[in-house]
Design goal:
By secondary structure, the protein is of the alpha+beta class. Helix content is about 25%, strand content about 15%.
Amino acid sequence: MKFCTSCGGRLADGAKFCTGCGSAVASIPAKRTPAADVYHPHEPVVVDTVPRLAAPPTQPGAVDRPAQGGNRVPLIVLVSVLVLGMLSIGGLWILRNRGESPPKDARQPAPVLVESTSPPPSTSTTATSTAATSTTTATVTTTVSGSESASPGSAEPSGSSSVATDEATATSQLGSLRTSGIAATNLDGTWSAQIASQYVGVEDHQLQPEPFTAVDILNLHRRLVADSRFAGRPVVMLKQNDFGKYGKTDKEIWITMVLLGHSSKDDVQSWCESTFGMTGEPLKNFCLPRQMKPLYR
């Protein structure tokens, strides 16, 4: 049995969220043990028994002598005639082409420009699709002229939908989203649904293979805002200790909430089951009922 590092509550096996405080639970990859070397003592040892013939020893002072016989004078004369002929031909070619060398710029053929028949890529509309994994459904984020479309009722401030490519910009935009989320949230004791909870460095292999960065957390929140399953519901960004039970942690845990305003936990549980199409422990990793009331210990 594992326990939450934030509030000390018990954690079910395989849970990614603490049911007490909603904190994200980091997954720890299992250690891999290298396979042991296998020794087979009874395997036969193959020995090369084929004899090798040694080269006969060389007598000290022995010198290879060419074979006797044959007159080499005709061969020398023939070779000399061929060499003189080649030199004469080369000299004639140099004299004939002297001063007729083409200019340097004309030696290389001019490049041929081929006009492309494919239309230029459009820069006004970009579509990014995230394929559904084993228990998640596909979500689509569309950017039109530099602004991201969001579902009605979302609490994203204007100008926060520009694409963040570095950690500092993403962290700043997360802070702006949190400020808008606090303003849109009523801590009146009603129940809502937590659909994401991440911090920088947490591992969640069901969503992506690498640890989360601030850019990843921001992009995940935007995909959830644009998800058609939550259309008509306010989808806001909060931090762990903005509401509910206090969790002691030194990490910035960013939480995406769907503000349902239901009167009971069971109502939110039923909404989660119908929206995500699952029940039991696996559902807690994707949708968790949370009571929206002021922070308490």
